[in-house]
Design goal:
Distance between the termini: 22 Å
Largest sheet: 4 strands, antiparallel
Oligomer: single chain
Structural class: alpha+beta
Amino acid sequence: MWCIPSEADCAFVAAMEDVLEVYKRPQDPKRPMVCMDETSKQLIGEIRMPWPARPGDVARFDCEYVRHGTANPFVASEPLACVRQVAVTENRTR
C-alpha cells in the first residue's frame, strides 16, 4: 500500500506528478509501459473443517492452522496492451 506522506513538500508533489504523467502516455509498441510487483505469501491450511453457516449467519473458522510454507507471486503486466504474466516460485531469490 502506498500513501502520500503528511510532510509532502513541493518537490515530492512535482515528482509524483511526473510519475502519474507516464500513465497518461498513449500506447507505443517501441516503448511499452511495464508494471511489476512481487510479494511473499504464507500458505496455510485448516486443521479442523469450518462449521457450516446457518441461514443468515457467517461461517465460523477455527483460528488454528497448519503452515504449508510460502509462495512468491511475481506479476508483470503491460496494462495498455492487456497483457499480464504471473510466475509463482517457492522461494525468493535475487
